[in-house]
Amino acid sequence: MAADWPQWRGPLLNGSSPEEKNLPETWSKTENVLWKAPLPGPSGATPIIQGDTVFVSSVDGEKNLLLLAFERKTGKEKWRKVVAAGADRTSGRNNMASPSPVADANAVYALYGTADLAAFDHSGKELWKRNLGADFGRFSVMWIYGSSPLLHKGKLYVQVLQRTPVPDDYAHAQDGKGERESYLLCLDPKTGKDIWRHVRPSDAIKESQEAYSTPIPHEGPNGTEIIILGGDYTTGHDANTGKEIWRAGGLNPKKDPWWRIVPSPVVGKGLIFVSAPKRDPVYALKTGGKGDITESHLAWSFKEYPTDWSTPLFYQDKLYVLDGDRRKMLTCLEPETGKPIWQGSLEVRETIWSSPTGADGKIYNLSESGTALVASAGPEFKLISKIEMGEGPCRSSIAVAHGNLFIRTAENLYCIGKK
């Protein structure tokens, strides 16, 4: 798995690929470009690499929601499938193709903001397709649903943290059913059928009920947990039943109605790292808790340059937090204490919506306008290179697999590597 990038945050689900070596630290739109392939439209979905195939979710000019497959070594398009015809809508910077696919050796699974969920084998044959909105209501999320599915130990998990009742101005969520439940859904990836659905309650209000985060697994004292973040809480769930094991609050002490959460949780060194929104702190929670662990399992908080939307990176036993909003500041933290080791500016003015990727002793980022940023993961901050690729808006994170970087702009998919 370490040679692939099978899920949004990579083989270890923490943004890193520890086995990669000899990755480029500088390139241009021609230098060290092994291939590039045109894309039919923009999306925040990250490329997924499984074996010899790169999978990409996208939209096109006819508002179709697509899944595309490319040959990893050449960039040749192998196939494209229309999962939902003419169904794309936009809200803010998001469209309906924001979630990243997930893949294993047998199939690829793609979810869209329309609640369409489909599975294909690697040759492009449809295995199954369903619309979760038909069963549970359309996704009620202001800026369009953006959580990616999780594939773990032979089960497929989908997190839906959403607003209820559906506001009148959420046109994409209207279906005649005003009430919604937030839930964690577990499916059989072979059939697409439900294994269980756990309703996840919250006393959050208005937009604060919503989250764009992705569920993350954790193997710890309580067995296999699925951790979800949003709706003012972090919760840990039994991976076999969905039952809530523990809950931590404190993410929205003022009960602000607009405190939506974008970053996903991250696990490392026996701790769970969660990010409050709107420049509130990053928190570290100790594992193994049960019940309300808001105070009992809080290890530390980091307040100086927290993240509003980029998911932190755990790489080489360090935690990296990116403030991609005001200061474009990258901070390296001791995960056990939250103490900053170093901080440095990425020296761009434009917003960075993507999440940092760690591999080969380097940290890769991509700004909204398409500037790739390479920093050292060493003992002190060093900005190695800035590569202005353009072709924005870019919101996808950089994927790493088989010795290459895979970078998605609004126009092309690039495979970057040393020739």
Describe the structure.
The model has no long low-confidence stretch (mean pLDDT 96). This protein has a single domain (33-416), classed as Methylamine Dehydrogenase, Chain H. The longest helix is centred in the first third of the chain and has 5 residues, at 132-136. It has one helix spanning 132-136; strands spanning 33-38, 48-50, 53-59, 65-71, 77-84, 90-91, 94-95, 102-103, 107-111, 116-121, 126-131, 150-152, 155-160, 183-187, 194-199, 216-220, 223-230, 233-238, 244-248, 266-268, 271-275, 282-286, 291-292, 298-302, 313-315, 318-323, 329-333, 340-345, 357-359, 362-366, 371-376, 383-388, 399-401, 404-408, 412-416. The protein has a 5-stranded mixed beta sheet, with no helix packed on it. The chain has a 4-stranded antiparallel beta sheet with strand order 1-35-34-33, with no helix packed on it. The protein has a 4-stranded antiparallel beta sheet with strand order 2-3-4-5, with no helix packed on it. The protein is mainly β and 419 residues long.
Oligomeric nature of the chains: single chain
Annotated CATH homologous superfamily: YVTN repeat-like/Quinoprotein amine dehydrogenase
Computed over alpha carbons, the radius of gyration is 20 Å
Q: Level of helix content?
A: under 10%
Instruction: Give the class from helix and strand content and strand pairing.
Output: mainly beta
> What is the CATH topology assignment?
Methylamine Dehydrogenase, Chain H
Number of domains: 1
| Largest sheet: spatial strand order | 16-17-18-19-23
Principal-axis shape: globular
**What would CATH call the class?**
Mainly Beta
| Span between termini | 24 Å
Instruction: Output mean pLDDT.
Output: 96
Main sheet summary: 5 strands, mixed
CATH arch. level architecture = 7 Propeller
What is the β-strand count? 35
Which ranges are low-confidence, i.e. pLDDT below 50, for 5 or more consecutive residues? none
Please report the number of helical segments.
1
* Percent strand: 35-45%
